[in-house]
Structure formats: C-alpha cells, structure tokens
Amino acid sequence: MAWIYLFIAGLLEVVWAYFMKQSAGFTRLVPSVITIGSMFASFGLLSIAMRTLPLGSAYTIWTGIGAIGSFIVGIFILGEAVNFTRVLAAVLIIVGLVLMKLSSSN
Prior knowledge:
flat, mainly alpha
C-alpha cells in the first residue's frame, strides 16, 4: 500500500507544479489554492509512505515521478521544447527510478 501512496503523492507533485506555473507567482487565487492543497496532500501521502519505505527510495521516487510528470505536462500541455538532450535526461531519470525501486527491499 505504501507504494500506491507514494505513486499518488508523486502525481500530486505534478499537479502542484503545473498549478504553481498557472498561479503566476501566486497572484491568481484558484491556481494558488490548488497548488497549496495538492502540496499538502502530496506531502501527506509521502509521509504515510515513508512510515514503511526507506527514505532514499521514497524521496527519490517521489521527486522522480514529479520531475518526469512535469516534463511530460510541460511538453504536451504547455508546449515546451522537445530535443534529444531533454528526452535523454528524462530517460535517465526513469532508469534511475526503476533501479531504485528494484533495489528497495519493500
């Protein structure tokens, strides 16, 4: 169950990153509220997952899901640039996440 909480926490990290961008530096109310709410939910689920998962694995996977998810949202929703170097960096993050999961004893 901890891995499910961690995965959802990572997805919520993507949500708050996107809405932080939409908040224009916390000058727009609705995106700002969504940002703060999803941050609290993400941190809360991360803390629950960390009750049983190792710190290094949990935190690395949480930030990795957020990084890759934000990268994908940036490309497909915000129209950010796609080039070989950015895609390679994302692939390397994914490889690191898979290795971190495989090396975890939980």
